[in-house]
Structures are given as C-alpha cells and as structure tokens.
TrEMBL record, chain A:
Name of the molecule in the record: NADH-quinone oxidoreductase subunit D
Compartments reported by the entry: Cell membrane
InterPro entries (alphabetical): NADH_Q_OxRdtase_suD (IPR001135), NDH1_su_D/H (IPR022885), NiFe-Hase_large (IPR029014)
Catalysed transformations (reactions): a quinone + NADH + 5 H(+)(in) = a quinol + NAD(+) + 4 H(+)(out)
Gene: nuoD
Automatic annotation (TrEMBL), chain B:
SUPFAM superfamilies, per the entry: Nqo5-like (SSF143243)
Coiled-coil parts of chain: none
InterPro entries linked: NADH_DH_suC (IPR010218), NADH_quin_OxRdtase_su_C/D-like (IPR037232), NADH_UbQ_OxRdtase_30kDa_su (IPR001268)
Xref: NCBIfam families: NuoC_fam
Family: Belongs to the complex I 30 kDa subunit family.
Xref: Gene3D superfamilies: NADH:ubiquinone oxidoreductase, 30kDa subunit (3.30.460.80)
Keywords, sorted A to Z: Transport
Protein name from the UniProt record: NADH-quinone oxidoreductase subunit C
GO MF: NADH dehydrogenase (ubiquinone) activity; oxidoreductase activity, acting on NAD(P)H
Automatic annotation (TrEMBL), chain C:
Family label: Belongs to the complex I subunit 1 family.
Pfam families: NADHdh
Broadest EC class assigned to this enzyme: translocase
Entry annotated with the keyword Chaperone: no
Protein name as it appears in the record: NADH-quinone oxidoreductase subunit H
Origin: domain of life: Bacteria
EC number annotated for this UniProt entry: 7.1.1.-
Length: 371, 151, 358
C-alpha cells in the first residue's frame, strides 16, 4: 500500500510504528527504516484521525465553528477556542470586557499546566518510568475539577465564545485555584526530584534529538520545542494578546537543542504558568464576562489571522470571510503539524529508543496534527 | 520594520510587486510563475530575513486557487503575507520546501486537500487521505454524497 | 518448632518402609514434580499480586481490591481468563518453534529450582556443582526467548529477542563473576556447603566491601537477566509494544509471564543463598544466646523472608527507574560492571588467600 520508503538497502529493517502503538499516544503512523537499532529514516503517515475540521468549519456559523476546535488539540482546548474567538473578535472589532480577558488568560494557563502535567507523565512513561504518570494525573485531576465546576466539562470545555466567556466563574473558583496553587507548588518540586535529577533519565535525554536553532526556524518548529533550541517564539511575549502584555512572566529559553533542553523548557514553563495564575487570581476585575454581541454574527469581507501560544506552540487561525454567516475558508496552523515535520531530521542516526524520547519531547497530540 | 518600510524595501527589490492594503500585515499578490524568485529574495535579502514560514494555506476562489504564505522574521520581527495565484485547470506551483523545510509538510497538505501540484517537491503523496482517494476535499466543488450533508 | 525437614523425613521413611526402593523413588519423583508445579503456580500468583500491590503503593493507587480478600484472588481470575483465551498463532509463524518457546522458558525456570535449598535439609537435589549448574542452566532461557522472537514472524518480536539475547549474554558474565567471588570464599560449588559456611555470619557481612560490591553487581546483573525494568529492553513497552512476546496470547503468554516471575524468584533465592545465608538464621559470631533465639525462627521463614526482601528490591527498581537505552545498557555492562567485577574477584581471591574475612 505504501510506496518504497527512502532508500532501503539490504539489511535495512522497515518497521511500522503505529497507527496503534504505545509510544505514539494516538494514531500516528510512522514508517521507520532501521539499520539494526539505528534510525535511517522516519516517514510519518497521517490521517487516522483526520476529521476535516477545516471543511466542517466552512459550513458552521461563527458561533459554532469555535467549538469544533476543542477537538483539535484536546489538551489545550481552551486555547484553541481562544484563538478562534480572537479571530472572530478581530473581524467584528469587539472589545472584550476586562473580566472576560482575565478569565480567559486564567483558563488558558490552567489548561497549559494541565497539558504540561500530562506531558510530563507521558514523557516519563515513554522512557520507561511508569510511576510519574500517576503522580501527574493526581494533580491534573485538581485542575479538571476546577474546569468541571466552571465550564461543565473536563476536557473539551467550550467555555470561550466570541465576546467573552459563556458563563461567569463558579463561586468556588478562586478558592479552589488557590488551593491548587499551594498543592502544586509542593508537588512540582517532587516532580523535579522524581524525574529531572534521575541519572538514567538524564542519560536518555542529553545530546539526543539535536535540533539547531536554524533548523528549528526552518522547520517551523514552535513552542517549547523551539525554545529548547534557543528560538524566542513565545507568542504571549512577542505578539501579546488579551492581557499577556501586562503580565510579569519569563519566556524560558534553553540553548541545548536536545531532548533535555526541551524537557527543561516545558518543566520551567509550568512554574511560569503557576506564577501567572498567582498574579491574576486575586485580581479578577468585576464587570461583564461577555460583551454584547448580536445573535447572528456576520464578519465583514476580509481576512483575519490570529496567533496564540498553546501548550505545544503557535496556533494560527487564518479565517477568510466573504461577509456571510459562515467562514469562507478557515485554516488552522497547528503547532503539532509543523513540529512533526522536524521529526525525521531530529531522529536520524539515533536509536529506536531515542525516537520515543524525541517524540515525547515534541509533545505530539495526534488530533492536533490531523485536524 | 513597519509595513510601510517593508513595502518600500520590497518595491526597491522587485519593482513591479503588487500590494494589497488594509489588512493587518503587508500583503503581496503575485502569480504562480513568479513565486520562487520572490520568496527566495524575501528569504535571502539582508534586512528582510523572512526565515520563518509559519503558515502555508491553500484557498479555493472557484476561479483560481490561492496559495497563501505567511512569513515572518525571527530576527527583525516583521511579517508579510504572500498570495500566489494558481491556475485552477492546471494547478502547478514551484515548491518552496528548499527555502523553508517546513513547507515540505505544508505543501503535502495543500496537495492532499486541494490537488495543487508543487513542482520539485521531494515526495508528493497523499498525507491525510488514503492513497486511492478520489478528488480534493477542500475544493469548493467537491461532492461526497455519503459523508457531506447539505443543509 | 515447625520444620520442613521433618515432613520430608517422615514421607521418606514411610515410603521406604511401605514400598520397595524403586517404587518409593518413583513416588518421590512424582511428589517432587507435583510440588514444583504447585510452587510454580503459587509463586506466579503471589508474585504477580505482590507486584501489583507494590506498584499500586508506589503509584498512589489501590491496586486490585475486588476479587477475594483485598484482591488476593485477582491473579487467579486473570489466570483463568488467560486459560480460557484462544492461543493465536500468527500467519507465517514457525508453528513448531512458536509453540515450543514458552515451554523452553518455563522448563528452564523449573530446572533451576532443583538445587535450591528452601530450608534446612530441604532440597531436591544437593548436586556438588550447584552454582555451576544454576549459572549454566539459567543461560538457556535466552534460547527460548530468541525462539519466541524469531518464530513470531514479527519485527518487534525479533528486535526484542535480539536485544534480549545481547543483554542476557552480556550480563551473565558479571553475574557469574559475582557468584564466583562467593565461591572463592567458600571453596565449594555446592549450595548446601555455601549455606553452611555462613553459620557464623552471612557473606555480605563477613566478606567486607568486596562482598558488598559483588552483591550490588549481582543484583544489577540479575535484574538485567530477568528482563526487568530498568533493563526491560526486550519487552520495552513504549518502544516495542511487548517485545518478544508481542504475538503470544492465552496460556502461552501466561507461561512467559509466569516464567518471568519464577525467574525473579530463582535469582533472588540464589542471591539470598550466596550473600544472605539462604535459610541460615541471622547469626553473629559466637553470641550463643542470640544465635539460639534466631534459630527458633524456622529456617523456611528465614529463606522466604530474604528472598521476598530481594524481590521487593527488584520491584522497587522497576517502578522507580526509567529504562536504559540498548547501547547504554551494553556500555554499563562491558565498560563498568565487567571490569569492576573482575577486579573485585581478584580482591576477593586475595582476601580468601590471606584469610582477611571473619
């Protein structure tokens, strides 16, 4: 069914990793060409969870199409919704109330934390340590409960709508988030002790999957994966949206370019997200949580592009409107898709076991790649 | 660099460049034939340094296709949008995967969903859909009686 | 005082007084076979349950807790399920080797049980080259694994089997050298002699630092030999799905699974015999009163206590460490463990000659 992969010479082993494989965390299909244990070529075959979200968006109204994107990168569904809402707001030139902006940013950062927690657990599991996964899920559960209370859902929240957020925060929100902050502050040090310092883990990570700064830019890698190579690409810093411009947080940059650098970036980002939440949780302004919008939204003719920083990198929403109630064309520039394009380059010459570590540090979410 | 300055620099570089105004970013419209020299110039000219192709999308305008390149520079922090018009009957355009490696994947996506052939691409194949899929789903005239429900 | 020795003696004398010696011997064989199979099943159940509870404790979960008292019957239920499942043979597999492989692994595990002294004078076969026998037979299990990997007609299985082969062959060396260092001290290959030589203290205490080094090397090497994490490359779940037993299902899979746990038991009992005195109670030199109190605890309890302590240690490794990569694994063996254990053996020999141990 598949064409010949790269140049296979005698003694090469062509092996299918996926679509069902424990390391791909979804339905990614990689055709590997191995020489012994050494990787010669990686060819991704996608589409096992392709749902044509771009085509679907063309027949959904501006209120509806936002929620399909929750299913793209399901681990940062808030941020996906946020990106779409920003595009629509850009078109309609709606001013989002201050309260809604703070709520959105809070939710974004909670989502980012939850996503990074899951990544941390899954990453450790990929390199063979099963225990951290359960520890990560214990803390993630606290975030999920906060989400459930306010948004009514735990994974695909569909909380953000054009003009603000759907409903106001739950009365328990502030208390629970504060509880979570105190809980997680002690746990994150535990995470550090449990995995980061482990000598086997460091040996598995250091010097593996090298990606130079130039290559990272050329391959369009974004998010923590690119920041591990020293590329400053945090949209929250470079092109601030909502209230990110007025917040005090650091863009984490590491220059190693290897798996360990990417690991450290993500790990330190958890602390940054925590500090953003801390800054905001006591300063949620009073007021409307939603701007007044018409029942049926009609964007003016034109093209709108908005960029946000998801847990995996830069998500771009490119929306073309012909003036109707539905978009003419929506293109999602998903971070996973571009990051995946660097996988072949990054994993050539490393061992099969390293591929798993590299994929782990890229933090691929397959629905995000396939859309 | 601001949009105006950018426009001046690019005009100085390639005199007959057409610009669209009114959008957030400076937009250049061009033809499929002229795309390669233009993008190469944008990538390589010092001061422009568009080294980061962050989005490549196809658009079906029923009369023609557009390939939209969103370029930005990680050193200069400016952004430009390039729109290339592609003939609908004979959809062919030069690949830019040798300028930006990420284009390799994005072009596969555009090929898979729009049927636009990127000449010079290292391995054009169906990326999302099965190898024997008929048609190009994101084209506006794509019909699928089973999976598409017309409202 | 409870003693397994009494039971065996009673059976032995009763059989010999009732039947003629040949028939008595045959009946003894039958009893031993039944006992070994029974031990196998019980060990499998107990160790799987223990592993699940230990991992649950480390992973802040409860573990199995529905079937039986505190979930103790869970492994029984799982085994029942595996027995009832269809054992599939993949297309293009070498049927004969595919079916043979789990039994090879299993039989090897059974064979090593023979010379192990479970309690005072409770041993199936007190062979005078016990240590040699154990090291020789245990290296056979790699053949079963290679068979399984090759015959499955699956690339993952093949990769897993190849990894396993490289790993077991390499780590056999340092395990062997670690074992040898105790043989040097004892001057005997017979396991009962080794245990008896620890009458006045276990080798890990008597042998000073070299004995501790050999003990550590031994534990690392046997963890690798039994394909346990952090050396579980042969079945590295996130890389090779299940490695050499990817294609196995039903009872054939259960045999591999069982053999893994029995192998852990065996290597831990070898470790306990060599370094921790086997069934020998904790004795200190010539403290008569203390030694007497210790003697009061049955020898079988001492043996199983030590073995299960070592098993717990190995389980602890599994649930805390990430996995090594194949080249790191081989580097660890050939560049670190092997030179250290060779040097250690020299040191040990010097110690034995000069009599620098208690």
């Amino acid at each position: 069914m598949f064409e010949e992969v790269g140049t296979t010479t005698e003694g090469d082993l062509v092996i299918n990793v996926g679509p069902q494989h424990p390391a791909t965390h979804g339905v990614l299909h990689l055709v590997l060409t191995l020489n012994g244990e050494t990787i010669k070529n990686v060819e991704p075959h996608l589409g096992y969870i392709h749902r044509s979200i771009e085509k679907m968006s063309e027949s959904l109204t501006y209120r509806q199409f936002i929620y399909v994107t929750s299913r793209m990168d399901y681990l940062s569904s808030h941020i996906n919704n946020h990106a779409c809402a920003l595009t629509v707001e850009k078109g309609l030139q709606i001013e989002v109330p201050a309260r809604a902006q703070v709520i959105r940013v809070l939710m974004d950062e909670l989502t980012r934390l939850a996503s990074h927690q899951l990544w941390w657990g899954a990453m450790a599991m990929d390199v063979g340590a099963l225990t951290p996964f359960f520890h990560a899920f214990r803390e993630r559960e606290a975030i999920n409960e906060i989400m459930e209370e306010t948004c009514g859902a735990r994974l695909t929240m569909n909380y953000i709508c054009p003009g603000g957020v759907m409903i106001d925060l739950h009365p328990n929100f502030q208390r629970k988030v504060k509880e979570f902050i105190t809980l997680f502050k002690s746990k994150i040090d535990e995470y550090d002790e449990m995995v980061t310092g482990n000598i086997i883990f460091q040996n598995r990570m250091k010097g593996i999957g090298l990606l130079s700064k130039e290559d990272a830019i050329s391959y369009g890698v974004s998010g923590p994966a690119a920041r591990g190579s020293g590329v400053s690409c945090d949209i929250r810093k470079l092109y601030p949206y909502e209230i990110y411009g007025s917040l005090n947080f650091e863009e984490i940059l590491e220059t190693g370019g290897d798996c360990f650098a990417r690991y450290l970036v993500r790990f330190k980002e958890m602390r940054q997200s925590l500090s953003i939440i801390e800054q905001l949780i006591d300063n949620i302004p009073e007021g409307d949580f939603q701007a007044k919008t018409k029942a049926v939204l009609k964007l003016p003719k034109g093209e709108f592009y908005s960029r946000v920083e998801t847990a995996r990198g830069e998500l771009g929403v490119y929306l073309i409107s012909e003036g109707g109630t539905t978009p003419y064309r929506v293109k999602y520039r998903s971070p996973g898709f571009s990051n995946l394009s660097a996988l072949n380059h990054m994993s050539k010459g490393y061992k099969l076991g390293d591929l798993v570590a590299i994929m782990g540090t890229l933090d691929l979410v397959i629905p995000d790649i396939d859309r | 660099m601001t949009n105006e300055a950018l426009q001046e620099t690019i005009t100085a570089l390639i005199p007959d460049t057409q610009f669209e105004t009114g959008a957030e970013w400076l937009t250049i419209t061009t033809d499929a034939v002229a795309i390669k020299p233009l993008l190469t110039a944008l990538r390589q000219t010092a001061g422009l340094d568009f080294d980061y192709l962050f989005c490549l999308s196809g658009v079906d305008w029923k009369t023609h296709f557009n390939i939209v390149y969103h370029l930005s520079s990680t050193t200069q922090r400016h952004t430009v949008v390039v729109k290339a018009k592609v003939n609908r009957d004979n959809p062919e355009i030069d690949t830019v995967s040798d300028i930006w490696r990420t284009a390799e994947f994005h072009e596969l996506e555009a090929y898979d969903l729009f049927g636009i052939i990127f000449t010079g691409h290292p391995g054009l194949r169906r990326l999302f859909l099965t190898d024997d899929w008929k048609g190009w789903p994101l084209r506006k005239d794509y019909e699928d009686p089973i999976n598409m429900i017309k409202l | 005082m409870f003693s397994l020795e009494g039971i065996t003696d009673a059976i032995y004398s009763w059989l010999n007084s009732t039947f003629n010696p040949t028939i008595a011997l045959l009946i003894e064989f039958a009893i031993v076979v039944v006992c070994v199979i029974g031990l196998f099943a019980v060990l499998g159940l107990v160790l799987v349950f223990m592993e699940r509870k230990v991992s649950a404790y480390m992973q802040i979960r409860l573990g199995p807790n529905r079937v039986g008292f505190k979930g103790s019957m869970q492994t029984m239920a799982d085994t029942l399920k595996l027995v009832l499942k269809e054992g599939l043979v993949p297309d293009g597999a070498d049927k004969f080797l595919f079916n043979l492989a789990p039994f090879v692994v299993m039989i090897v595990a059974m064979l090593i049980l023979a010379p192990i002294p479970f309690a005072r004078n409770f041993q199936m076969w007190d062979i005078n080259i016990g240590v040699l026998y154990v090291t020789a037979v245990s290296s056979l299990s790699v053949i079963g694994i290679l068979m399984a990997g090759w015959s499955s007609n699956n690339k993952y299985s093949l990769l897993g089997a190849m990894r396993s082969g490289a790993q077991i062959v390499s780590y056999e060396l340092s395990a062997g050298l670690a074992v040898l260092s105790i043989v040097v001290l004892t001057g005997s290959l017979q396991l009962s002699d080794i245990v008896n030589s620890q009458q006045d203290g276990w080798w890990i205490f008597k042998g000073h630092i070299p004995a501790i080094i050999s003990f550590v090397i031994f534990i690392i090497a046997v963890t690798a030999e039994t394909n346990r994490a952090p050396f579980d490359l042969a079945e590295a779940e996130s890389e090779l799905t299940a490695g050499f037993h990817t294609e196995y299902s039903g009872m054939r899979f259960a045999l591999f699974f069982l053999a893994e746990y029995v192998n852990i038991f065996i290597v831990c009992s070898i470790g306990a015999i060599l370094f921790l005195g086997g069934w020998m109670p904790f004795h200190i030199g010539n403290w008569e009163a203390f030694n007497h109190v210790m003697d009061f605890i049955p020898s079988s309890v001492w043996f199983f206590g030590k073995v299960f302590f070592l098993i717990f240690l190995i389980m602890w490794f599994r649930w805390t460490f990430p996995r090594l990569r194949i080249d790191q694994l081989l580097n660890l063996e050939w560049k670190y463990l092997l030179p250290i254990s060779m040097f250690n053996l020299l040191l040990m020999t010097l110690m034995a000659i000069m009599g620098w141990y208690f």
